[in-house]
Amino acid sequence: MDQHPPAPGRGLTRPPHLRPGDHVAVVAPSSPIDPERLTAGSAILRSWGLRVTVAPHVLDTHPVLGHLAGTDADRAADIQAAWLDPDVDAVICARGGYGVHRLVDLLDWDAMRAVPPKVLIGFSDVSSLHEAFAQRLGVVTLYGPMSAGASFITDGPTAEHLRRTLFDPSATTVLTSPTATALVPGRARGITAGGCSHVLAAERGTPAARPSFAGSILVLEDVNEHPYQLDRILTQLLRSGALDGVAGIALGSWEGCGRADRVRDVMLDRLGPLGIPVVWELGFGHCPSTLTVPLGVPALLDADAGTLTLEVPALSAR
After folding, report:
1. Active site includes 255?
2. Is 221 known to be catalytic?
3. Hey, what domains does the chain have and what are their CATH numbers?
4. What is the rounded CA–CA span in Å between residue 167 and residue 49?
């Protein structure tokens, strides 16, 4: 199966930034969508001057498996149609949950590779799509809030950071938060990659999984995983070789994962021996207020300063 990892140190192909009047397609690759949240999130996107189309199956529920937003074939068809539509400039996921693993291999990657790149936005379960887009399309994606998600709808700074990343990406090249501190000091350069830790661990051994995140600034976060479960997840990533050659690690939020000191202890125990810079709580992921983190972009991680600085804007000029 064709895969297109980035050239060392260069990053992936950057889609064009958005402008008022551009067209955004909303898809639901994972779990069922709350209609009221869908409406509220779409209104925010429209307030930015964007045209918004909700894909045909976004409000579906799987006829047997109620944890899925429609059948695998329909969810995959919505994503593929949006990506192939020349009038669509960005694809935003309505929410995460569970289900992306089931549809990644249903997409026609050859057809999707043949069209100009556009923006993909989402986080959590969408980590599987981010990995697949990186490996099979070679395209920068945005690990950011989803249009029917609580943080996007209720937290102004969350929506604003995504808006600026989409419309004026040169203004969002330095990522930090008041909580960002050094877990392991130092500085490192690499290509941003990663996402939700348990999703990345589940990708190991699948066609979409890269052999390792060598040369990456790896971003990791998660939700509702107890410290012992995080230990298992990180151990799986270590034992599988996924963390071999990683340049640095930026940790995001760990909502619902128990006491912060216990989570921090697990991170230090599992990641400290790698001998690379690690930033604690950079402010992205399943938190009430979250940053948008571009994946596939060359960046400098400064653990002592608590910053992740993109060496080029996430999206290209038009």
Report:
1. no
2. yes
3. 23-170 (3.40.50.10740), 174-310 (3.50.30.60)
4. 11
DSSP 219-255: EEEEES--HHHHHHHHHHHHHTTTTTT--EEEEEEEE
State the burial class of residue 229 (Cβ atoms within 10 Å of its Cβ: 0-12, 13-18, 19+): middle
* CA-based nearest residue to 309, from 176, 127, 126: 176
Degrees, nearest 5: CA angle 255-258-262:
115
Alpha carbon distance 100, 138 (integer Å): 19
Digitized pLDDT (tens) for each residue of the chain, 318 residues in all: 233 334 445 799 999 999 999 999 999 999 999 999 999 999 999 999 999 999 999 999 999 999 999 999 999 999 999 999 999 999 999 999 999 999 999 999 999 999 999 999 999 999 999 999 999 999 999 999 999 999 999 999 999 999 999 999 999 999 999 999 999 999 999 999 999 999 999 999 998 789 999 999 999 999 999 999 999 999 999 999 999 999 999 999 999 999 999 999 999 999 999 999 999 999 999 999 999 999 999 999 999 999 999 999 999 998
Q: Which of 101, 130, 198, 286 is catalytic?
A: 286
Among residues 221, 225, 253, 281, which one is catalytic? 221
Which one is catalytic: 124, 127, 147, 197? 124
How many whole angstroms separate alpha carbon 76 and alpha carbon 57? 10
Phi, psi of 3 (to 5 degrees): -135, 150
